[in-house]
Structure formats: C-alpha cells, structure tokens
Amino acid sequence: MRTQVGIIGAGPAGLMLSHLLHQEGIESVVLEARSRQYVEERVRAGVLEQGTVDVMVETGVGERLKREGLVHHGIELSFLGRRHRIDLSGLTGGKAITVYAQHEVIKDLIAARLAAGGQILFEVDGVSVHEIQSAAPKIRFRERAGGERELSCDFIAGCDGFHGVSRPSIPEGALTVFDRTYPFAWLGILAEAAPASEELIYTYHERGFALFSMRSPAVTRLYLQCAPDENLANWSDGRIWEELHTRFRTSDGWTPAEGPILQKSIAEMRGFVVEPMQFGRLFLAGDAAHIVPPTGAKGLNLAIADVRVLARAFAEFFKRGRGEKLDSYSATCLRRAWKVQRFSWWMTSMLHRFPGDAGFDQRRQLAELDYVTSSRAAMTSLAENYVGLPMG
Ligand code: RFL
Ligand code: PHB
Fold it and tell me: Which parts of 156-259 fold into alpha helices (H)?
C-alpha cells in the first residue's frame, strides 16, 4: 500500500488532518486500533472553541454541529455560595463556545471521510513505524483479518493520543519531556437530566472543585474533584448526588437537577509537552505531543489547532515543493500549546483544593476569583483564552 500521509489514530487530530488534506487534494490513510463503534461512542470532551467550530463549518463538516450544537455566550464562576457570569461574547467582540460532544465531532468526520472515498482502517493491530529519517517512511500493521501489511508514505502523522506508539518510536534523547502531575483527578458523570442552568458553572468549594456542563437539552455532564487514586466503586449514585448538591448549592438554593446516571469515569489530571513535535518524517499532533488538564476545556481544540498548521505545511510541500512550513511546524504549534498549557494550569490552580494547604492557597484562590469576577481586564483575559487564542 502507498499513500502521501500515513495517519496513526482516528481521534479528532487524525480524522481532521485526513479531512483537511483531502480538501487540499492530498491522499492519506488513517489506521485506528479500535473499532468504529468504539471511537464513535467514547465519551470525552464537550466544548468547542470558536476557531474549531469555524474550521468545521468552513470545511463542510459543520451541518449537524450548527443544528445540534449549543452556542454559549458566557460561563459562570461560583464561589462562597454565589455565581458570577463571565460574558464571553461581550468581552471578545462576539466570539462564543459551542457545546457539542467530541464523539459527535468524530462521527461527523468519519462520515465525511468515508463519503469522500477516504480510507480509514479500524481495528488494526501491532502498528509500528519504520525508516522515519528517510524520505520513504513506512508503517507496518496487522489487519483484523490477520494479514501483515505495510503502508509506504511520504510522511507519517502520529495522531495516536497520549498512549500511542508514535511518540515512543522516536529515539530517546531526541525529545525533551515536560511533565506536571496534579494531586487530584475528576470523577465525571453523564446524567439523563435536563440541564438546570443554561451555562457551564465552574465551582470552587472547600470540599473541592465541581463543574456543571451538558451534552444536550436532555443530558447533564458533571464533574467532581476527587483523589487521584479514587476507586469508582466507592461512589454510589446517592453519594455522587449528595456531593454535587453540597458543592454546587448557591445561597439562592440552586443545585443541579438529578436523573439516572448513564456513565461514570475517572479522568487523571496532567500537563505534558514534548519538544520538538517532529522527528525526521514523523510529525506528532494532538495528545500524542501534549496533554492539558481539562479545566480549560482545551485538549480537543489544541489537537485541531495542530492539524490545521500541519495540513497547511503538507499542502505547501506537495503543491509547491516548499518545506519551510514543515520545518517550523513544531515551533509554531508549541508556541500556542504552551499558552494553552498556561491557561489550563491557571484555571486548575484557581479552582481546585490542594491537599496539605493550611489556608494560604485558599485565601489566594478566593482573592483570584474575586479579582477575575470584578476586574474587566482580568475577565477579558479569561474570556479570550476560553473562547480560544488565534489558531496560528
Ligand atoms: P485521541 O482522541 O486520544 O485519539 C487517538 C486515537 O489513536 C488511537 N490509537 C491507536 N491507533 C492505532 N495504533 C495505535 N497503537 C494506537 N494507539 C492509540 C486511539 O484509539 C484513538 O482513537 O487523541 P487526539 O486526536 O489527539 O485528540 C485529543 C482529545 O481526544 C483530547 O485532548 C481530549 O479528549 C482530552 N479530554 C478532554 N478534553 C477537553 O477539552 N475536555 C474534556 O472534558 C476532556 N475530557 C479528555 C477527557 C480525555 C480523556 N482521556 C484521554 C482518557 C476525558 C478523558 C477520559
Ligand atoms: C465537558 O462538558 O465535558 C467539559 C466542559 C468544560 C471543561 C471540561 C469538560 O472544562
């Protein structure tokens, strides 16, 4: 088999890259370890930046998003029993975020690729990359039917997430790793309940952070800060609702509406970046190169920003024979990725309880929340980062 760009991973990064390359007339093949059903049902992120929405709409995969996505013009920060609104649109010249689940983005991109005759091979095993320092790199893998296959490419895009094979294929010593672990995790639930607030609510509480979000007019998405080694078995539905009510209840009596819990999971909190995001003809994009704690709602959006830069760089190479944009790919993406890392760290530090804090941090956090909900300059900074920095 042969293609121009061999893409490992059918997450947001891999699928959007394949879609953008197709628009430029560049061929690609996507190799995915999981089944189509698995990737189309995997519950993850839910907030799309304005720039992510714009890319989807401009490239013809935004029809359902425009119909079903929930456009939000503000978010709320809640502390000491009161909610404070941040007017995202008013502070950013009209930009907004859209709540539309990551797996819906995945469904739309898979449908568009297959309708255009694109190749996505699901349930492939044993993916490995070879000769990445040559002009003809190769990907070897096994198909579900059993056959060993080799895909020859001009370039390989490692879009296989944090636990993929691409990053570990780069020789040790060629990459520098920057890592930050946070001393807590998030317990996330999906509940069949109409969202009791129209906007997302980020809550600071002495028992820990809580986040109110949603997926549709009938489904609420909620998160609770918990211990990093938390055992889900200790969290009965009753205990989850009690903790949610305690953390969210405002002095006017607001709390989220209850409903049957459809799904529970624990997400770890980590910041991670590798530099550079390229080795020879292997380019890393999305979670394969960097992850952020979810407090800024940035992971998926950062993946889309990377592949926009990468698709343009491949287009320059294949259409005009120019390699400068490929050479600067890593530096371009890292510049934005570190700003997003900084914002995610800042939101995380402001809103979570840190174990062992004797009170200094709590006072500092409350001062920060008071500042950010009362100073227009501080609010504007939050808003411009939350709706998304320019894609670059
Ligand atoms: P993905 O989505 O992880 O996709 C990588 C794909 O590669 C496949 N793969 C392989 N395929 C072939 N061979 C191999 N050896 C392979 N190894 C892996 C995987 O099956 C997968 O299909 O990475 P991508 O495209 O970079 O996209 C990044 C986003 O998915 C990610 O940043 C966000 O989902 C992060 N994230 C969240 N972000 C938010 O902004 N808000 C959230 O609420 C939020 N919740 C989450 C999250 C990530 C989670 N993870 C990673 C478990 C909740 C969870 C639980
Ligand atoms: C979500 O809806 O899953 C969500 C929203 C905002 C975040 C993280 C996750 O910061």
Answer: 237-248
Could you tell me if the CB of 348 is within 6 A of ligand 2?
no
- Ligand 1 centroid to residue 357 C-alpha, Å: 32
| Tens digit of each residue's pLDDT (9 = 90 or more) over 340-359 | 999 999 999 999 999 999 89
Ligand 1 surroundings by CB, under 6 angstroms: 8-14, 31-34, 39, 44-46, 102, 127, 159-161, 164-165, 265, 267, 286-287, 294, 297-300, 303
What's the pLDDT score for residue 293? 98
Domain ranges in the chain are 5-72+95-178+270-346, 181-269+352-387
Architecture of domain 181-269+352-387: 2-Layer Sandwich (3.30)
Could you tell me which residues come within 8 angstroms of residue 118 by beta carbon, excluding any fewer than 6 positions away? 18, 19, 22, 28, 30, 112
Predicted TM-score (pTM) of this structure: 0.97
Per the annotation, the verdict on 264 as an active-site residue is no
pLDDT, tens digit, 9 for 90 and up, residues 94-115: 999 999 999 999 999 999 999 9
Euclidean distance between CA atoms 165 and 169, whole angstroms: 6
Query: pLDDT over 70 for what percent of the chain?
Result: 100
Q: How far does the centroid of ligand 1 lie from the alpha carbon of residue 305, in Å?
A: 15
Which tokens hold the place of 148? 């060993």
CB 391 within 8 A of CB 302: no
Q: What is the mean pLDDT of residues 29-54?
A: 96
Q: Which among 232, 224, 162 has a CA at the least distance from the CA of 353? A: 224
**Shared fold status for 5-72+95-178+270-346 and 181-269+352-387:** no
- Of 224, 219, 233, nearest to 187 by C-alpha is 224
Residue 202 designated active-site: yes
CATH number of the 5-72+95-178+270-346 domain? 3.50.50.60
Average pLDDT over residues 156-179: 97
Rounded to whole angstroms, how far apart are CA atoms 392 and 384? Answer: 15
